[in-house]
Design brief:
By secondary structure, the chain is an alpha/beta fold. It folds into two domains: 293 residues, TIM Barrel (Alpha-Beta Barrel); 57 residues, no CATH class. It has 15 helices and 14 strands. Helix 12 links the parallel strand 12 and strand 13. Helix 2 crosses helix 15, helix 7 packs across helix 8 and helix 8 packs parallel to helix 10.
């Protein structure tokens, strides 16, 4: 089966030839695996591991003020590396939204420093991009179809509105805004959801298989802003977005990513149309319980223990973990297996290899 056939079959809750897998890792891990297999490219690694990741397409956004700033590219393994950025100093940079980050002294991680909406009393005082700033790509339908013809599953991805908002405003201030300044929240969210829905609309019209929202709304044990607050501000907007996109393609898959514990809002996410939930972080949510309660309505995407088994377990622990997830969560499809986040440099390469080789080789009796 092609990756596309395998993913579509499991999302239709039918058992494919084997459980599809997805791989996302830091550069250090990529290099370690290439060395392990004595190959020179990640394409060769994916062929060996049999991973079934999908192709991403997107719609560009114009930022007129950003275009005027001098930019440079710096290489590394930290997020934002290898992108054009406006540098304030050797370690501090600004992205196109005007959000400022600083690279840690170890060169591995970045921290948020400031956002352009800090201190503003009115969201209209920030020049948030509108649908007129989206960059049309007349060839997008052809690109999507070409990828499908290659046997690939095709999706588009946008930022979690909450994540985008707190990046612009600051997390502490944004969480206070929910309680003290709801008018600000509503105004900014109307801008964010309007833009992201239009990006989705254009990509869905071009033929993508799935629309992804990527960013966290949960902590280890609960929803960050509180489930009731999320239901007040986000749920109706997500419902409207889902309805708009499914009006273009009723068979569209809707994917929600959030680390942490989503149990409080799982019924809500399904109610508004999300049928793929990622990453079912096993340190926060029990994948087997999720499968038992909602497995007929969603595809579980992720489930691999990246805080316990992969970094600290033996290869046999990893093998047992993968087999248990497949047998208890993928017996009738509805599972795309991957570690529950980007694989970090603290995971032994042997455990990474074991995780994917076990899933690649497992067959139901």
């Amino acid at each position: 089966m092609t990756p596309r056939e395998r993913i579509l079959m499991t999302m239709a809750h039918r058992r494919p030839d084997r459980i599809p897998t997805a791989y996302v890792a830091r550069g250090e891990v990529d290099r370690a695996i290439m060395a392990y297999y004595a190959v020179e490219t990640m394409t060769e690694v994916h062929e060996i591991l049999g991973t079934d990741g999908w192709e991403l397409v997107d719609i560009g956004i114009r930022f007129p003020e950003w275009d005027k700033k001098p930019k440079a590219i710096k290489h590394g393994d930290w997020s934002y590396a290898d992108r054009e950025l406006y540098w304030h100093d050797e370690r501090t940079f600004e992205d196109q939204w005007g959000t400022v980050h600083r690279i840690g002294r170890d060169g591995k991680y970045v921290e948020w420093i400031s956002g352009p909406l800090q201190g503003l009393d009115d969201a209209d005082d920030y020049a948030f991009p509108t649908v007129d700033d989206l960059i049309d790509d007349a060839d997008l339908p052809c690109k999507v179809q070409a990828q499908k013809d290659q046997g690939l599953f095709v999706s588009t991805e946008v930022s979690q509105p909450y994540t985008l908002a707190w990046g612009l405003r600051g997390m502490e201030q944004w969480l206070m805004d929910y309680l003290l300044n709801p008018d600000f929240v509503n105004k900014l969210y109307d801008k964010i959801y309007g833009l992201l829905t239009e990006i989705g609309r254009r990509c869905v019209a071009a033929g993508v298989d799935m629309f992804r929202i990527d960013g966290d709304i949960a902590m280890h044990d609960r929803i960050i802003m509180g489930a009731d607050t999320w239901r007040r501000f986000d749920k109706p907007r997500l419902a409207a977005m889902s309805a708009e996109l499914r009006s273009i393609n009723p068979d569209l898959h809707l994917f929600m990513h959030s680390d942490g514990n989503l149990m409080e809002v799982m019924d809500d996410l399904i109610e508004v149309g999300f049928d793929v939930i990622d990453p079912i972080q096993p340190e926060c949510m029990d994948p087997v319980e999720v499968k038992q309660r909602w497995g007929e309505m969603i595809t579980l995407h992720g489930c691999g223990s990246l805080q316990r088994v992969l970094p600290f377990g033996t290869t046999q622990d990893v093998r047992n973990h993968v087999i248990e997830l497949i047998e208890k969560c993928g017996y009738n499809g509805g599972l795309v297996l991957r570690p529950s986040n980007v694989i970090s440099f603290d995971v032994p390469v042997e455990n990474v290899v074991t995780f994917f080789e076990t899933a690649r080789d497992y067959r139901f009796d």
